[in-house]
Design goal:
Bound molecules: adenosine-5'-diphosphate, magnesium ion
Number of helices: 10
CATH class of the largest domain: Alpha Beta
CATH topology of the largest domain: Phosphoribosyl-aminoimidazole Synthetase, Chain A, domain 2
Largest sheet: 7 strands, mixed
Oligomer: single chain
CATH superfamily of the largest domain: PurM-like C-terminal domain
Structural class: alpha+beta
Distance between the termini: 51 Å
CATH architecture of the largest domain: Alpha-Beta Complex
Number of domains: 2
Radius of gyration: 20 Å
Shape: globular
Helix content: 25-40%
Strand order of the largest sheet: 8-10-7-11-9-12-13
Number of strands: 13
């Protein structure tokens, strides 16, 4: 199947009116809203490395978009559109149909347009998605703004995807295959959160990026980590390892003053948020269990300092 028929058949659904020129020309055209900054990021998924080889095509399509929208959400921005660079070993039509349906399902859920891309043949299946979003000038939430005594908060539950990867077929595989980018929450946090990151490499490591960028430390309470019931049944050290060192959560981790956190709760975010600790001056992470220092064995955890 020729490149143009692939694009025509699987990747050329209608784009909304805010796209001035979409798929079909050499570049796409968008009109920037006045006084906004472009927010842009890209992420590549390689088959066998970022997802198991037998992952359903629909899930691969969803996830390739979702992981990028998660990065846009982590800036407090609103996603607008994506571009897709697709490297395919062969034009397997059933796979392309599933992939395209999954990709558009995620686009439709978050009101995002596919506005362009590239299609090439290659021995390995890999997908790069670039996401674009807009944010009012100066309103983006960087990693560098955490202040002493800010609360450290995470959305949803953590460790589910890492658990699912080791228990394929468990209901939590949904969390691995269909991550939920926290776009609505990210937007609500504009003007409230002092710093933010999305959790892709494990909470401890990603929080470490906030701490390093902000030149601060953290005191975490392990008993407050938000865990799915399936993880709560595990021995403590395993629970903590999944929650802190597991990857692929795509939850948001942010810092926020106690006053702003109260304001957030009044705005009724569509996802549970949990306070797991506070920012401290000393650049380290202290792990407590019921207020007492707790030694941890975090396989795969790299200290940030
Ligand atoms: P060019 O050769 O000028 O780079 P292409 O022939 O690669 O253009 O692409 C033709 C049009 O199809 C462009 O608008 C491009 O953005 C779009 N396109 C190509 N591949 C994809 C894809 N996988 N998904 C979405 N749009 C695509
Ligand atoms: Mg061209």
């Amino acid at each position: 199947m020729a490149e143009f028929s692939i694009i025509e058949r699987y990747f050329n659904r209608r784009q909304n009116a805010s796209v001035d020129l979409g798929i079909g020309d050499d570049s796409a055209l968008l009109a920037a809203p006045p006084n906004h900054q472009l927010v842009i990021c890209t992420d590549t998924l390689v088959a066998g490395r970022h997802f198991p080889l037998d992952t359903a095509a629909h899930a691969v399509g969803w996830k390739s978009v979702a992981v990028n929208l998660s990065d846009i959400a982590a800036m407090g921005a609103k996603p607008h559109s994506i571009l897709l660079a697709l490297s395919l070993p062969d034009a397997d039509q059933a796979w392309l149909q599933g992939f395209s349906d999954g990709l558009y399902a995620c686009c439709d859920r978050y009101g995002v347009n596919l506005i362009g891309g590239d299609t090439t043949q290659s021995p390995h299946l890999s997908l790069s998605v670039t996401a674009l979003g807009w944010i009012e000038h100066g309103r983006a939430i960087a990693r560098s703004g955490a202040q002493v005594d800010d609360l450290i908060v995470v959305s949803g539950t953590v460790g589910d995807a890492a658990f699912a990867l080791q228990h394929l077929g468990h209901p939590l595989q949904q969390r691995l295959d269909y991550p939920t980018p926290r776009c609505e929450l990210g937007l609500l946090l504009q003007g409230l959160a002092s710093s933010m990151i999305d959790i892709s490499d494990g909470l401890a490591q990603d929080l470490g990026h906030i701490l390093k960028a902000s030149a601060k430390g953290a005191c975490l309470e392990l008993t407050q980590l938000p865990l799915d019931p399936a993880l709560q049944r595990l021995p403590e050290q395993q629970q903590w390892r999944y929650a802190l060192a597991g990857g692929d959560d795509y939850e948001l981790c942010f810092t926020i003053s106690p006053e702003h956190y109260q304001q957030l709760l009044q705005r009724q975010p569509n996802v549970q948020t949990t306070v797991i600790g506070q920012i401290i001056q000393t650049p380290t992470i202290i792990f407590n269990k019921n207020g007492q220092a707790q030694p941890l064995d975090l396989k795969g955890y790299q200290h940030f300092a």
